[in-house]
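[audit] Reproducing an earlier prediction to check determinism. Same input, same settings, fresh worker. If the tokens differ from the archived copy the diff job will pick it up downstream; this log only records the rerun itself.
[audit] input (221 residues):
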Amino acid sequence: MTKKTFLGAMTVVTAVALTGSALVASNMGFKLNYQLLQPGGGLSADGTNTISLPDNRQTGLNDAKNLMDDIGFANILSVQKFIKSDNSLQSYTGRKGSLAPFALAAGDGYRVKMSTTVNYIIVGSDDPTLAYSLQGPAIGISADGTSQFAYNYHQTATDAKALMDDIGFANILSVQKFIKSDNSLQSYTGRKGSLAPFALVPGDSYRVKMSTTVNYIPSHY
């Protein structure tokens, strides 16, 4: 299915959702205009952005190469995924000498490094029954319980505190967002001395640090 065809189907589903139940609304298709920034202007240090893709992506968007092609290969330098076992980043550039493209997976967030600013149209739908495995520390599986989480478009948690509560506060140590202007991470713990919770933005992905493994089904509207 092409993006154009998918958007046509999405329009039909959205129209039904206007008079349907909350369940329909939580699984309806969506279109999100998400800006991926190039370096400069005090907005992005080196063109690195986080991105969150829907559970059900458009046909043909299966791996890092497909994502680069969909964004526009000339505009993007790399796609990176977070490796939980050692907290490293695996990079795919599509250029000579690059590793093979890695598969995209529902619930995983990614980093994309841009050379040109692109208003990228994300289309797809969220699956309100899909559980994401947010893993606590485990040898060979998760170094310290950190995952790069793809924030759901129709998720009811609107800030870092609400996300921690929805996952289960006793199971999670922090939520972190990527700050494009200096490539740092801003952390919210919900504990004494923490900064105020930051808002969650559709299209962004976040790091969550778990103390206990949770099979998490986000609350949807």
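[audit] rerun output stored. Observation attached for the diff report: The radius of gyration is 17 Å.
[audit] end
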